[in-house]
């Protein structure tokens, strides 16, 4: 009986010892992934923002409240990617001017590394209407296990990806993070028509103008999970005529995640870190230690001198 028990324990111990690296290096990487059923509401605020009000036909200054709702399209999720829909709505609370800007973004990205995938009707729907997009770079999330290097991050305004450069280590609400800075060069993003009088130009009728955007985006990213727990968007948008002359501001603002949103995202990152640690470290380590212990006990029973049943 003792010999039989020893054989069982040695066999079980060997199985767990072999299982430990499989859990760590093969199974864990498949379990750690972005969710298909994502649902979140993110809020930003921009104080003393300047923007051209279509309602008032002039430039106003006020505080903008920006709400971003993100929902996963579970039916479109596949083995290697997920599909998330995002709706952004900006309201001027100072001048009681709602919905000064509304944008819809349909995205698809690799659920294991966060890189954009072009499929499933990916598009950006803004003031100029829906436009199909070729997704590149990181979309919503940085990779699991962020490194101190430059990443390409997709920008919905220009429909392109730009470098986000590592800018140092930081802490957000006590959470260690990496800071990345992305600079967007001046880029025409929309063609508009505006009355000559509104643009302070001579003549009558409407004049064609380009809405030109440039900006600086800063991301504070928790490196284990790739979750941006804080973000700041410095936006500089102006209306330019065909001669390249800047006629008036379209939107000049610095928008940042609200403290409540930062707190919620920090907690999300902490929860995800705990899950990743469980999958990548705790379970493989427990399997290894338990396997070694069982193997040692089993070997001791087999090698122990005395009567063998």
Q: For the terminal residues, how far apart are their CA atoms?
A: 5 Å
Uncertain spans, ≥5 residues at pLDDT below 50? none
Q: Helix count?
A: 2
Report strand order across the widest sheet.
6-5-4-3-2-1-12-11-10-9-8-7
Radius of gyration: 27 Å
> In this structure, how is the largest beta sheet organized?
12 strands, antiparallel
Helix content: 10-25%
Order of helices and strands: HEEEEEEEEEEEEH
Mean pLDDT: 88
Tell me the total number of β-strands.
Answer: 12
Strand % is: over 45%
Shape: elongated
Structural class of the helix and strand makeup? alpha+beta
Features of this protein?
single chain; 309 residues; alpha+beta; 12-stranded antiparallel β-sheet; 2 helices
Overview of the structural elements:
The protein has 2 helices and 12 strands. It is of the alpha+beta class and 309 residues long. A 12-stranded antiparallel β-sheet has the order 6-5-4-3-2-1-12-11-10-9-8-7. Helix 1 packs antiparallel against helix 2 (259-303). The longest helix has 45 residues, at 259-303.
């Amino acid at each position: 009986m003792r010999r039989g028990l020893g054989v069982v324990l040695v066999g079980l111990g060997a199985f767990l010892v072999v299982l430990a690296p499989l859990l760590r290096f093969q199974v864990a990487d498949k379990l750690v992934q972005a969710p298909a059923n994502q649902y979140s509401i993110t809020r930003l605020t921009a104080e003393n923002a300047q923007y051209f009000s279509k309602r008032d036909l002039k430039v106003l200054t006020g505080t903008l409240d920006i709400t971003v709702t993100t929902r996963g399209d579970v039916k479109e999720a596949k083995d290697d990617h997920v599909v998330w829909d995002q709706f952004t709505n900006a309201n001027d609370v100072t001048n009681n001017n709602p919905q000064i800007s509304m944008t819809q973004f349909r995205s698809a990205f690799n659920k294991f590394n966060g890189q954009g995938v072009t499929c499933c009707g990916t598009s950006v729907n803004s003031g100029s209407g829906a436009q199909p997009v070729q997704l590149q770079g990181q979309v919503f999330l940085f990779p699991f296990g962020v490194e101190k290097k430059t990443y390409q991050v997709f920008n919905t305004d220009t429909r392109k990806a730009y470098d986000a450069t590592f800018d140092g280590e930081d802490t957000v609400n006590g959470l260690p993070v990496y800071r990345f800075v992305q600079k967007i060069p001046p880029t025409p993003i929309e063609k508009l028509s505006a009355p000559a009088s509104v643009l302070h130009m001579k003549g009558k009728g409407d004049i064609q103008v380009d809405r030109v955007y440039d900006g600086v985006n800063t991301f504070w990213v928790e490196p284990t999970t790739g979750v941006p727990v804080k973000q700041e968007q410095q936006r500089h948008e102006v209306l330019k005529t065909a001669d390249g002359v800047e006629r008036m501001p379209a939107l000049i603002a610095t928008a940042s995640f609200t403290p409540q949103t930062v707190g919620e995202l920090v907690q999300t990152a902490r929860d995800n870190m705990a899950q990743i640690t469980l999958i990548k470290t705790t379970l493989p380590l427990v399997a290894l230690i338990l396997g070694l212990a069982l193997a040692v006990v089993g070997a001791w029973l087999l090698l122990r001198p005395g009567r063998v049943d």
